[in-house]
Amino acid sequence: MRNETFAITTGDAGKRLDVWLTNTLGDYSRSYVERLIEQGNVTVGGKTVKAGYKLKDGDTVQVGIPEPKPLEVTAEDIPLDIIYEDEDIIVINKPRGMVVHPAAGNYSGTLVNALLKHCSGSLSDINGVIRPGIVHRIDKDTSGVLVIAKNNSAHAILSGKLKEHDVNRIYIAVAEGNVPADRGKVDAPIGRHPVDRKKMAVNMKNGRRAVTHFRVLERFKSSTLLELKLETGRTHQIRVHMAYIGHPLVGDTVYGRKKQKYGFEGQALHAAVLGFTHPRTGEYVEFSADPPQEFRELVEKLRQEK
After folding, report:
1. Does residue 70 have a pLDDT over 70?
2. CATH 3.30.2350.10 applies to domain 168-272+293-303
3. Beta bridge partners of 223
């Protein structure tokens, strides 16, 4: 355990503990810092506090950072669709059906298992033993572009850009029904569903700000092809927002119909474009991937629908 002690001065008084500590430690993501606080590894004046605690002049913050655990996830020889790779990042076109990182009951066949083999363990360890290199995620049945960090410096920079909403993330999706406006914005906070804790929902009381911009690409008889741009990046954001405005994604049995009309398994959602400032060069880079065959076949089927 590595222990750090910090004295709060007037200039930092009033700041949230989690935000201040993330900036102070530098090499760790805010989600990691929040976990440290939740697990009791952060105290103020010898007492555990919540992540949103407002610092006071004269406070003493003590932080215990556990030593990294040896990685227990197995490297697996799984083919990867690599769009770009250098010493700092690797950009992947993730297929539908692949889980991004291991979780309880699912420790093999994930993107992380494949990355461990391909990168020979050269991945950032900021997010712990089961999420090495993972800066952001997309759902199992969402395909498309992801960036992975190969070292902690790149990870910290990319995480910071995501928190500042300084990453260009564009998706394409098929939504049920005829979306009437050619373009628009959904600005509605997202949090845990008040009853079903496995789901997310628009939550006006306890949700975090979430904004999705959309543009109609093509209209079909009973569905709409959309381009969606994320201003924020909440869990299941596009799926929740589209269901909230009455146009759940085709194939989404969690937020849409339990019985789907077109036999499309999993939500019709593809991360088409990802643009960001390269963590080493400082230059803007942008990567794209075409939707998978099953997505294209769905669109063709909808075009022919009478």
Report:
1. no
2. yes
3. 176
Question: Cα separations (Å) of 132 from 20, 71, 87, 122?
Answer: 24, 9, 15, 9
- The reply to whether 12 belongs to the active site is no
Residue 177: Cβ-neighbour burial (10 angstroms; 0-12, 13-18, 19+):
middle
* Domain spans, the chain: 2-65, 82-162, 168-272+293-303
| Fold designation for 82-162 | Pseudouridine synthase (3.30.2350)
| pLDDT at residue number 104 | 61
Task: State the catalytic residue, choosing from 59, 139, 141, 252.
Answer: 139
- Quote the CA–CA distance of 13 and 5 in Å, as a whole number: 16
What pLDDT does residue 105 have? 62
| Res 1: pLDDT | 81
Q: What is the mean pLDDT of residues 266-289?
A: 97
User: Measured between alpha carbons, how far is 112 from 135 in angstroms, rounded to an integer?
Assistant: 12
Residue with tokens 């969402």: 142
| Cβ 18 vs Cβ 37: under 8 Å | yes
3-state SS of 152-187 is: HHHHHHHHHHHHCCCCEEEEEEEEECCCCCCEEEEE
What is residue 161's predicted lDDT score, i.e. its pLDDT?
94
How would you classify the pairing of strands 60-65 and 2-7?
antiparallel
The answer to whether residues 89 and 281 touch, using CB atoms and an 8 Å cutoff, is no
* CATH number of the 2-65 domain: 3.10.290.10
- pTM of the predicted protein model: 0.77
Domains 82-162 and 168-272+293-303 share a fold: yes
At 164-179, the pLDDT tens digits run: 999 999 999 999 999 9
